[in-house]
Backbone:
């Protein structure tokens, strides 16, 4: 059975029903899987203003042959943690780098389909995307053959050069790793959303948190790799999870700074002998001020992100 439109972008798309959801093949968003419950939510106005971000994320993942598996538990986090270009000029610079990666190095040409390829710079509309191509042409970075849907876009020498310079200027933000318990307690989720993540972002980090189904069982190689890639860690000791302590110890062993926080209830009976490390107690009534206190602490201790 096949559905006829992409739940993310509403373009004509192929859909194959699987037991757990639908595998969609969309010319703009690529191949991805979506659970039935999320599929239903997307047919309404859910995430209406963020669809272009989701479309771009799905497209890049599909092109890397790592198709996204979207469900109600991960979709908002994926969007929140993405760092897409947000203004037309950022999108233009971003698309210039895409062209430099995807153009044929012999001919400097990439065939661009305006409807399908606007996802390659997270463009929210066809009009916006055409404006971006026009801007790149005006700046002498590309030449295009006509104004149709499908265009041969050719990078000029200046375009190649600018793409490289742009790459040098826009290295990704350093990563901060958040280690914390994943109990069913909504309070922890709130603390992450309202305090941990915003505080780290305000200090210039992009934030990585291990995927949700992460009970205390296994700490796999992937997690250790992410800790290794991170410049700093925030370890929340609420509920005294062994996995959190292990991750914090691993980070310290790598020479990373670790900021400890803990819910006030668990704060005084701290496990192990780490009482002499700074720990910021919090509770659900002071999450906004917790964010401020964390930022202040990081500023005072020179822990703000430094460009890599
Ligand atoms: Zn789509």
Residues:
């Amino acid at each position: 059975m096949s559905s006829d439109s992409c739940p993310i972008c509403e373009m004509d798309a192929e859909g194959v029903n699987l037991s757990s959801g639908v595998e969609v093949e969309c010319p703009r968003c690529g191949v991805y899987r979506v659970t039935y419950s999320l599929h239903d939510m997307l047919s309404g106005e859910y995430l209406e203003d963020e669809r272009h971000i989701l479309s771009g994320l799905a497209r890049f993942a599909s092109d890397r042959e790592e198709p996204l598996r979207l469900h109600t538990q991960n979709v908002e986090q994926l969007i929140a943690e993405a760092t897409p270009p947000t203004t037309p000029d950022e999108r233009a610079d971003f698309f210039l780098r895409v062209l430099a990666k995807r153009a044929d190095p012999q001919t400097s040409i990439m065939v661009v389909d305006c409807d399908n390829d606007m996802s390659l710079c997270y463009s929210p509309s066809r009009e916006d995307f055409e404006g971006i191509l026009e801007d790149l042409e005006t700046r002498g970075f590309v030449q295009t053959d006509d104004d149709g849907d499908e265009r041969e876009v050719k990078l000029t020498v200046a375009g190649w050069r600018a793409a490289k310079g742009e790459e040098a200027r826009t290295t990704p933000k350093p990563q901060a790793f958040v280690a914390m318990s994943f109990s069913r307690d909504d309070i922890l989720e709130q603390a992450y959303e309202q305090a941990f993540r915003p505080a780290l972002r305000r200090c210039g980090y992009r934030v990585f948190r291990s995927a949700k189904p992460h009970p205390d069982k296994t700490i796999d190689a992937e997690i250790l790799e992410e800790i290794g890639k991170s410049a700093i860690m925030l370890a929340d000791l609420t509920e005294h999870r062994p996995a959190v302590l292990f991750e914090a110890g691993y980070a310290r062993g790598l020479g990373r700074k670790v900021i400890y926080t803990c819910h006030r209830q668990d704060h005084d009976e701290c496990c192990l002998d780490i009482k002499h490390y700074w720990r910021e107690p919090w509770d659900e009534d002071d999450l906004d001020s917790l964010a401020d206190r964390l930022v202040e602490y990081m500023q005072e201790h020179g822990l703000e992100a430094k460009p890599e």
In short: The chain has twelve helices and twelve strands. Residues 175-300 form a domain with the Rossmann fold fold (CATH 3.40.50.10140).
